[in-house]
Automatic annotation (TrEMBL):
<keyword id="KW-1015">Disulfide bond</keyword>
<feature type="region of interest" description="Disordered">
    <location>
        <begin position="1"/>
        <end position="21"/>
    </location>
</feature>
<protein>
    <recommendedName>
        <fullName>Cytochrome c oxidase assembly protein COX19</fullName>
    </recommendedName>
</protein>
<dbReference type="InterPro" id="IPR009069">
    <property type="entry name" value="Cys_alpha_HP_mot_SF"/>
</dbReference>
<dbReference type="GO" id="GO:0005758">
    <property type="term" value="C:mitochondrial intermembrane space"/>
</dbReference>
<feature type="region of interest" description="Disordered">
    <location>
        <begin position="76"/>
        <end position="95"/>
    </location>
</feature>
<feature type="domain" description="CHCH">
    <location>
        <begin position="30"/>
        <end position="64"/>
    </location>
</feature>
<dbReference type="InterPro" id="IPR010625">
    <property type="entry name" value="CHCH"/>
</dbReference>
<dbReference type="InterPro" id="IPR051383">
    <property type="entry name" value="COX19"/>
</dbReference>
<keyword id="KW-0963">Cytoplasm</keyword>
<dbReference type="Pfam" id="PF06747">
    <property type="entry name" value="CHCH"/>
</dbReference>
<comment type="similarity">
    <text>Belongs to the COX19 family.</text>
</comment>
<dbReference type="GO" id="GO:0033617">
    <property type="term" value="P:mitochondrial respiratory chain complex IV assembly"/>
</dbReference>
Amino acid sequence: MSTAMNFGSKTFKPRPPDKGSFPLDHFGECKAFKETFMKCLRDNSFDSSRCRLQSKEYLECRMEHQLMAKEPLQKLGFKDLMDPPPSQADKDTNL
C-alpha cells in the first residue's frame, strides 16, 4: 500500500506578480530612498500623505533599476508633483 496521496493531476502554473508586488531589492540599489521614505513615515506618525515626494522618488528609483514595471507617475497618483510643461512664454524666450 502506498502512503503517497494523489491530489489530482493539476500542475502549478506560475503567474506574474499582481500590481503592487515588487521583487526584493537584493543589491540595495534603492535602499537610501527607502530609508528616507520610512524615516518620513515615522516622523509623521505614518501619515503617508506627508511623504508623497519621498514615495515618488523611491518608486522612480525602483523603476530605473527594473525592480518594478515602468509606469507613468501620473498613473501612480503623482500628477500634482510632476514638473509643469513649459509655457508658451518659456518657449518664446528660448528662441
